[in-house]
Amino acid sequence: MADAQQVSLTIEGRQVTVPAGTSILEAAKVAGVLIPHYCYHPGLPVAGVCRMCLVEVEKAPKLAPACATAVAEGQVVHLQTDNALDARKAVLEFLLLNHPLDCPICDQAGECELQDYVYREGRAQGRSHEPKRFNPAEDFGGDVLYVTNRCILCTRCVRFMQDVASDPVLNVSERGDRAVIGKFEGKDLTHPWAGNVIDLCPVGALVSKDFLNKARAWELDRTASVCPNCTQGCNTILETRDNVVVRMRPRTNTDVNHYYLCDEGRMDYRWMNRTDRLEAPLVRRGDRLAATDWDEALRAAALHLNGKRAFVLASPMLSNESLWVLSRIMKRGGGAGAFRVRREPEAPLAGVPDLARRAERAANVRAAELFGFAKSDTPLAGLQAGDVLIVADHEVTAADASALAKASAVIVIGTTMPELVTNAIVALPSTNVAEEDGTFTNLRGRVQQYHQARSAPGMARPVWWSGGDLLVFLGERAGYYLASEAFAALAAQQPEFSGLTYESLGSKGQLLADRALAAGGAAR
Amino acid sequence: MGFPHAPHAKETPVLSQYFGDPAARTVAGWKQRGGYAALEKALGMSPADIVNVVKESGLRGRGGAGFPTGLKWSFMKVGDGKPHYLCVNADESEPGTFKDREIMRWTPHALIEGSAIASYAMGAETCYIYIRGEFTEPLTVMAAAVKDAYAAGIVGPNAMGTGKRIDVHVHKGAGAYICGEETALMNSLEGKRGNPRIKPPFPAVAGVFGMPTTINNVETLAAVPHILNRGAAWYKGMSHSNPKSTGTKLFSVCGNVAKPGNYEVEMGFPFKDFLYDLCGGPTPGRRFKAVVPGGSSVPIQTMEEAEATLMDYEGFVAQGSMLGSGGVIVFDDAQCMVKHIARFARFYAHESCAQCTQCREGTAWCTRILERIERGLGTMEDLDTLLDLSEQMTAKTICVLSDSCAAPIVSGIKKFRGEFEAHITGKRCPMGATAAA
Fold this sequence. Notes:
The structure holds two protein chains of two kinds.
Chain A: E1 6-11, E2 14-19, H1 24-30, E3 54-57, E4 64-65, E5 76-78, H2 82-97, H3 113-121, E6 138-139, E7 144-146, H4 156-164, E8 170-173, E9 180-183, H5 196-200, E10 206-208, E11 221-226, E12 235-241, E13 244-250, H6 263-267, E14 282-285, E15 288-291, H7 294-305, E16 310-314, H8 320-332, E17 336-339, E18 347-348, E19 356-357, H9 365-370, E20 374-375, E21 388-392, H10 398-401, E22 409-414, E23 424-429, E24 438-441, E25 446-450, H11 463-473, H12 483-493, E26 510-511, H13 515-518
Parallel strand pairs in A: 1-5, 16-17, 16-21, 17-20, 21-22, 22-23
Antiparallel strand pairs in A: 1-2, 3-4, 3-5, 6-7, 7-10, 8-9, 11-12, 12-13, 14-15, 14-23, 18-19, 24-25, 25-26
Helix pairs in contact in A: 2-3, 7-11, 8-11, 8-12
Chain B: H1 27-32, H2 37-43, H3 47-57, H4 69-74, E1 84-90, H5 99-106, H6 108-121, E2 124-131, H7 136-151, E3 156-159, E4 164-172, H8 182-189, E5 213-217, H9 218-230, H10 232-237, E6 248-255, E7 261-266, E8 269-270, H11 271-278, E9 288-292, E10 301-302, H12 303-307, E11 310-311, H13 313-318, E12 327-332, H14 337-351, H15 357-374, H16 380-392, H17 401-415, H18 417-426
Parallel strand pairs in B: 1-2, 1-5, 2-4, 6-12
Antiparallel strand pairs in B: 3-4, 6-7, 8-11, 9-10, 9-12
Helix pairs in contact in B: 2-6, 2-9, 3-6, 5-6, 5-7, 6-9, 14-15, 14-17, 15-16, 15-17, 16-17
């Protein structure tokens, strides 16, 4: 589309040039102008029903819906004329006619587009003296609660289920001001991606049962992250209140997950708040593990590793940096490593190309394999007698535990102490995805940053930090105090990552240098 | 013919000539009355020639908008390789309008013939006749007539033995006023909820099933065979006021009038004669107060305006209203205008498809205010609010349903403000009436 015809127009006095066929609303975004809207969403077919985006186009006989009007050469668009302002003010008054104004008990308050635009452009006082219509709230299934009275019938949810999820569960029932969002007979919002209707809803009509009454929007801290729960690598926002992750929501990345996040991914955040954590480095003193400082613990670990082959059981949930540091520990003595990944049925989102809840339910399978860790259902099969076993935040099942006896020593690096590991000589506390900076490589070879959303418990450190320090104790050149330092070292030594810098990853990530590798062998 | 009354001498029965004549419903009976000669003639002409004749006749859409029919047909690019469709809008739901019903009841073959000619002229092999669901008798009659036309080889894969395919399907609506809006009708026909679509694209580019489509009103199509039979000049000659309005028009008359019914007059006929002469004036002891001349969606006329009107597209506009669908609703001096305007608004509030905010909420809000005023609980501010809401409901939405709700409200308040104020200051309806339940 490089030769697509370009169209120049003026929006609110700003010149902008966009490809022909672009809507005025999208062109305005390019010009840095937000045209208020409700029903329009870039991921959904245009409905043109809320009429909030009415703008004045010079020489046009009437106000034009910016979402449904294509740009034209030389067009002059105004938002702030009396006509356009009156029209939007009227739409807002109409939308509030039957709205309960229950902002004080509404989860959407603070992040509600109805609040925002009424505050900005609405009337100070409504003129209606008529009683409001009332409809009871309805459980829509899945995580979704429909608070009927707050609904502005923008139909984003209906269009998402119909056109993106290809599972038409929702409809507009009834007509006139009796209209509500309805469910088709016998259907529920059980589609694996149905929870997105909560994010798509511009008001508080579709709310999360999981998040219901948990926090006010303005109490939340928001951090850019990546969903660690499968190999797709959907971009997310981790929302925390008082250092506790309370919600995970999609972050737009049109190269990966567009505007969406699957239900399983978004609901699987509670483990990030676990409190039964390893909080201090531990060393074995007789029959028990005793808390100590980092230096002693690292020295003890290095002592056991020296001259020994290391076998690393590494979690595929660890970052690129952590896995790479572990791979260096593994490789220096000619060791080996492996991991196991949980597999579940894949759940694609029909309307978005190459987007699915992937079968492999861990974020960094791609990097783990790239750095030499073998994917196996029996990862300890390669453990040789006399090896020093490093368990790096990887689960240890009863089947695995029987192999532990072969190891000359067991070192645990992890967020928690594996229950079945009883003979560890050193345990190094580590952070989870919410508590550190790092990067993941998704199944298509896209390297993406995530950031620290809550403080680490006790003395816990990212594995790329503690592992780097361990390498120093083993006489290697290492020692990283920022994720960017670890990433720079990784990029310098790992050919697939050459050319990537931590800064250049930005908020949308970058593909691995080797394109054939990046495509994962699959045609896109 | 002022069916069910005997035809009045001043009428020009063209479409209504055989109203009340059951024999005209059969293929044989229709042929005896000159039927299907125009179709035979048309199938021997080139599509472009037919379009030109229709253009030349000055025929304009009888559904309400008055768009030139020949011009509309010319938007269909014959030979573009896509299937073309003709939709017949027989979803006659405009309050006060019942002309298409009579055409279908008495002269179903007139509609089939006109539809077949139009289909051929636009390269459409398929024609859908979308009939309002409540029209049980017209549906039965039309379905039987289509069956007979197929059996007689008039339509079907080999229409009139010419080898041309013209399929005609009768589709029953499910009872929504909005399905008379052309794009809502198409959605409904496709099995979707009858919501109007955003235009562009216009139906001639992407209509039913996304293919080029033209949609015409029943009365428009029923006039086409007459134009082909008797020539464009004859049709064009039936014009008494403005040369842009030609032919005859059926008016459905209801309300407080001595002789309600359908009347067919030539364009430009004086409305005063129509009301007092053809329709027999008011009922004994009453005087006319107001007229809604073109279905409930057009502005209300005072008698002064109505009596000065020449009945054509331009004539009604010149006197503060519109020709619309030709549904004449007459009010006499015993009627409460507030009550009737509230009743109109309630209809639109009920029928709004709920897509556009202004329409969904505005029609209902206006209804509540109007009904409150009618009950004597209104305030003077309510009138300002109504006018302001009406302005915000006009030219802001996908279709014109909310504009239609606003038209009688605005014209009602402007022309009969005294009645509204009497309700407000007197705190009761001066007519003693109560709002329609």
